[in-house]
Amino acid sequence: MVYMLDRCPREDSPRLGAMTLHPEPGAVPRARRWFRKFIAPYNPACSVDDCVLMISELVTNAIVHGRSDGPWLVRVEWFREGTSLRVEVHSPGFPANVRLRHPDADDAHGRGLLLVDCIADSWRSGPSRFGGTVVSFVVADAWPA
């Protein structure tokens, strides 16, 4: 199996959905496609395109920088918290390795978190509850009050 989706979260949970992806190139477009599909019924007022861009960047970073001695997965979860949308990307590796870079104009890489920093209302990184690292972003006012 290449991915797993949780399309039916519990009603008492703020989690709207989740997906688990193998760390391969096809994971990024798959994450974009499935997030679009499963966030649509919730009618967010925020830019889904912006969210998809940020998810693309964080899943790419998870695949490129995730580290494990054995087989591993990337997990993406999205939550409604009041009027805000929070998206988390979990991967193996050390939380201390996540940092915002300011690349030179001719650098080919290093802009993913910079994009997230510019678009999201906030973002953070730290230890994942699954082990490894989580990087998350919040879009405030994703739904009307």
TrEMBL record:
Keyword Transcription: no
Source organism superkingdom: Bacteria
Residue ranges of domain Histidine kinase/HSP90-like ATPase in the record: 23-137
Pfam families referenced in this protein's UniProt entry, alphabetically: HATPase_c_2
One MF annotation (Gene Ontology) recorded for this entry: ATP binding
SUPFAM superfamilies noted in UniProt: ATPase domain of HSP90 chaperone/DNA topoisomerase II/histidine kinase (SSF55874)
Keyword tags: ATP-binding, Kinase, Nucleotide-binding, Serine/threonine-protein kinase, Transferase
Keyword Zinc recorded: no
Protein name as it appears in the record: ATP-binding protein
UniProt organism field: Streptomyces fimbriatus
Taxonomy of the source species: Bacteria, Bacillati, Actinomycetota, Actinomycetes, Kitasatosporales
